[in-house]
Amino acid sequence: MRSRTRRAFEILLAASLALAARTASASSCDELVASAQAHEKNGEPEIALRQYNDAVTLDPTCGPAWLGLGALRARTGDAAEAERVYDAALTHVPTLSEAVAGRARSRRRLGRADEAEEDMRGYADALASRGDLHGALAALVELASWFSAENRPPAELACWRRVAELAGGVDSALESRARATTAALVWVVGSADPVSHPHGSGLLRSVAARLRLR
């Protein structure tokens, strides 16, 4: 009986010590992140970088430290390193969706448009699924701006249609903007739009396929 009681006490003690260690680690991580942010504001990125690195070493599950580190790398122009940071963040904290958005922007700067767009779509979907429609809309508007800059009206049109769908009842001004932009893009895309011209788009694809075979 005594041995069981002693064993139970040892388990409880170990659990208490582990909890105290995690609490202390989280507290120290928060302090390092706060200090790093202060150094960034003071124009001391080298110190901030070191403190963010110390924070993720101390607690690899500290989301704010990973995001701060990735954002700092991006601001200093090192897109490749920023992508690596965001990848590491998602390995340790898979639910850190903001890291997906950061990685998307880094990949776009690196010229990897397809991966960047996939990440940003995934980020928008994740926000929408958990009810953060304002965040999802902001992500989709950003994605639409990428398509606009790349002169890809069909992709931009699809994006604005999604914005119009989500904005209803959430942001009336954005919904109006999305519908007006959608109407303008439908005119630009014309018969290549599979939504407004389903038969025409099939004909265009058929003609394009024949031309490729010649």
Quickly describe the structure.
The chain is mainly α and 214 residues long. It has helices at residues 2-41, 45-58, 63-75, 79-92, 97-109, 113-129, 133-149, 153-167, 172-189, 198-213.
Structural description of this entry:
This protein is mostly helical. The chain is built from ten helices and no strands. Helix 1 (2-41) runs parallel beside helix 3, helix 3 packs antiparallel against helix 4 (79-92) and helix 6 (113-129) packs antiparallel against helix 7 (133-149). The radius of gyration is 24 Å and the shape is elongated.
Task: Write a concise keyword list for the protein shown above.
214 residues; disordered C terminus; single chain; elongated; 83% helix; mainly alpha
Oligomer, anyone?
single chain
* Secondary structure tally: strands: 0
Structure annotation, total helices = 10
Order of helices and strands: HHHHHHHHHH
Going by helix content, strand content and strand pairing, the class is mainly alpha
Helix content: over 70%
Chain-averaged pLDDT: 84
Radius of gyration: 24 Å
End-to-end distance = 88 Å
* Backbone shape: elongated
The low-pLDDT segments are 8-25, 200-214
For the sheet with most strands, the description reads: none
- Beta-strand residue percentage: under 5%
